[in-house]
Design brief:
The chain is of the alpha+beta class and 296 residues long. 25% of the residues lie in helices and 36% in strands. It has two domains: 223 residues, P-loop containing nucleotide triphosphate hydrolases (Rossmann fold), CATH 3.40.50.300; 66 residues, Beta Barrel (OB fold (Dihydrolipoamide Acetyltransferase, E2P)), CATH 2.40.50. The N and C termini lie far apart (47 Å). This is Molybdate transport system ATP-binding protein.
């Protein structure tokens, strides 16, 4: 239904590394879902996110959320970020260095709600750091603070601009779980910018693939990136992003270090100690794939 979707039809001229580029995006986003904007650096993902947030003005077009118009170049409508009720997590987290963690999370609330701040600190495991300053935290802890601060506004929309890009791969899995937690806490529509296929398969209900300023694919991760065939003879190391139970076996989706995707069948005795996020080695022996967990 029209009032259950975000309708986006915007254009903007950008200057990219290869010269001028026309960002031309027309899509519909279901409200309440976790959607990943996927593409290489410079494709236009972050600009699109900023236009939705009201931080960057499109050259023309419109953005409509349900029955509410956020931007319409023809009608001269351009709601401010404050009017759009969004929570935004930037790549560098944009925490205030002179504020405590409690103060950072509370900042931006329309009305001070200490109970909600304390609840969010607890949910993200930050209670013991409430009186500290951001420079005393690790990168993963700062990301949790940024997520908690975004949720403290009780947003209808949670916008995440590659929040894990600066973090080591060893802690990305746990923080991907934090993003899922953030999405579930409020049931807000979540838009995540990423160029990491592991994140896509772990997090996305829907993917919008963007290349050179244009959408080249929209749908579920499997529909966009897989041809539904299972790799046969393989010899790879990668991370499990999905484990699916079939009739008598399990289907593992694995993303390699080269951002390639393979699907592998396995039986219960082969995966009893495996979980999504684990690093594994898959190799073939007479056409039968063998799976071995890789110890970090």
């Amino acid at each position: 239904m029209e009032n259950d979707v975000i309708t986006i039809d915007v254009q903007k001229e950008l200057i990219s590394a290869s010269g001028r580029m026309q960002l031309n995006i027309s899509t519909v986003v279901p409200m309440g879902e976790l959607v990943v904007l996927f593409g290489e650096s410079g494709a236009g993902k972050t600009t699109l996110l900023r236009m939705i947030a009201g931080l960057t003005k499109p050259d023309k077009g419109f953005i409509k959320v349900g029955n509410s118009v956020w931007f319409d170049s023809k009608k001269g409508i351009n709601k401010s970020p404050q009017e759009r009720n969004i929570g935004f997590v930037f790549q560098d987290y944009a925490l205030f260095p002179n504020m405590t963690i409690f103060g950072n999370v509370a900042y931006g609330q329309n009305r001070r709600d200490e109970a909600l701040v304390n609840k969010l600190l607890a949910k993200f495991g930050l209670t013991e750091f409430a009186a500290r300053k951001p420079d005393k935290l690790s990168g993963g802890q700062k990301q949790r603070v940024a997520l908690a601060r975004a949720l403290a506004r009780k947003p209808d929309f949670l916008l995440l601009d590659e929040p894990l890009s600066a973090l080591d791969s060893s802690i990305r899995t746990s923080l991907q779980n934090e993003i899922l937690k953030a999405h579930s806490i409020t049931n807000a529509t979540t838009l995540l910018v990423s160029h990491d296929l592991t994140e896509v398969f772990r997090l996305a209900q829907k993917v919008i693939k963007i290349e050179n300023g244009k959408i080249t694919g929209t749908g579920k991760p499997d529909d966009i990136f897989l041809n539904n065939s299972i790799s046969g003879k393989v010899q790879i190391t990668g991370n499990i992003v999905k484990i699916q139970k079939q009739d008598t076996f399990y289907l593992l989706t694995v993303v390699t270090g080269m951002n390639q995707i393979v699907k592998v069948t396995a039986f219960e005795n082969e995966i009893h100690d495996l979980a999504e996020g684990d690093k594994i080695m898959v190799f073939s022996k007479a056409f039968n794939p063998l799976i071995m967990k890789v110890q970090n």
